[in-house]
Amino acid sequence: MHKITKNMQPNVVQAKSHTVPVDVLMDVLSILFNNDIPFQVEGINEDEQSLLIRTSTNAKLTRDKKALENIKTLVSDYTYYRHESETGNNKNNNTDDYENE
Amino acid sequence: MIDAIKNCLQCGTPMQAQKSTKKYCSDTCKQAAFYRRNTKPLLTLNGSETLNGNDSEDIPEEPVGKVNPDSEAVNKEQQPEKIPFDVSPDVRNYDERQQPLPFNVRKSGNQTIPGEQGNVKQKDSSPVKESRKQNKTKQADEDPYEYVQSGFLNEIAEYLEDNYKTTEMFQSPKKYWYGSDLESVKWVSVRFRCIIENLLRFDNSTVERKTLVTVNKALTDMMAASNFKYMPYNYPLTDEIKEQQQRLDKIIKAFGGTFRFGLKRNSKIKLIALRFQLADLVTKVKFHDLNFSK
């Protein structure tokens, strides 16, 4: 696990938490490692099959901003395919989660 | 070999020369003499004088500008009027230009270092530092951020693209079905979506066999229902429903008690894509709210 040890000025460090589904976890991790972004896994949600990851980025670095944007895009795209798309005929007709028995 | 007594040309100290060509008593004196000879041409680099290259043997191995502190001390004592590093900024820039360039400058390749040095020359700060700074910034700009794409998401998108017709049918069902056909399509679709949602939810979790048996029974009941039997011929998911039922059947026969249920990558991609398509036609309904046999 990457520890938050990067020497950064406190005023430019931006901490953000992301709920990352395990299906895109490898992609998110590769973004974090490729851009040397410190992160911590804050929690695991087994029911949702997701991890809560806290990143610390330098708000002044364009590269860090783009990396965060990249993560957000992946997560939102995944959410779109996996949980949303209640469009057209079925917009606003969501119900609660299922019980299979 | 000649062991004649000679005086050092730099400090005048008597020395025993083993070679007839030896002029200086020590390396320090040799270097000091070199700087003494070359200070003037350096100072007037932009003028008419050039470096004196007559005594090539006296040129130290270190590049100009890297001065041994001892030799500098000697220079200060003996040649106080022409010390190379107490001179004008022009000379300093010239000397620093002889130093090796920073790593990132060499890496960038297309950089024209002399031009940059020329601009930096006018500034008070070190040209090498400025050059490094500029190149670092340029390098960051030159390396565009490479967006990481998810193979998983791309495969979902590809599946949807390949099965665009199905998406279109569920988005505009009235174009393809009407009356009782449309009702049957919706009846089957809402149930199939419910089963898909549950299978996706079971993925990577511990599941009891009886839970899967219940789901499989629901699927079997649905397939036995008249709505499924008299489904319009162009309903695109008939084969998928049969396939899922067969898979569940195999799992139930293979496992007992409690086990970890896992979908293969391709199956999961397909199920997510199918759920996505069905979501255009039918809403999410709880499993226990649905009657699968009607």
Keywords:
heterodimer; A: alpha+beta; 3-stranded antiparallel beta sheet; 31% helix; disordered C terminus; B: 294 residues; mainly alpha; 2 domains; two-stranded antiparallel sheet; 13 helices
Q: How many domains would you count in the coordinates of chain A?
A: 1
H/E element order of chain B: EEHHHHHHHHHEHHHEH
What is the SS-derived class of chain A?
Answer: alpha+beta
Largest interface summary: A-B, 37 and 40 residues
Tell me what the CATH architecture of chain A is: 2-Layer Sandwich
What is the string of helix and strand elements of chain A? EHEEH
Q: Using the coordinates shown, work out and report the CATH topology of chain A.
A: Alpha-Beta Plaits
Mind explaining what this structure looks like?
- The complex is a heterodimer of chains A (101) and B (294).
- By secondary structure, chain A is of the alpha+beta class.
- Chain A has one domain (13-87): Alpha-Beta Plaits (2-Layer Sandwich), CATH 3.30.70.
- Chain A contains two helices and three strands.
- Chain A has a three-stranded antiparallel sheet, with helices on one face.
- Chain B has 294 residues and is mainly alpha-helical.
- Chain B has two domains: 4-117, no CATH class; 151-289, no CATH class.
- Chain B is 54% helix and 5% strand.
- A two-stranded antiparallel sheet of chain B has the order 1-2. In chain B, strands 3-4 form a two-stranded antiparallel ribbon.
- In chain B, a hairpin with a 6-residue loop joins strand 1 and strand 2.
- The chains are: A alpha+beta (101), B mainly alpha (294).
- At the A-B interface, helix 1 and helix 2 of A face helix 7, helix 9, helix 10 and helix 13 of B.
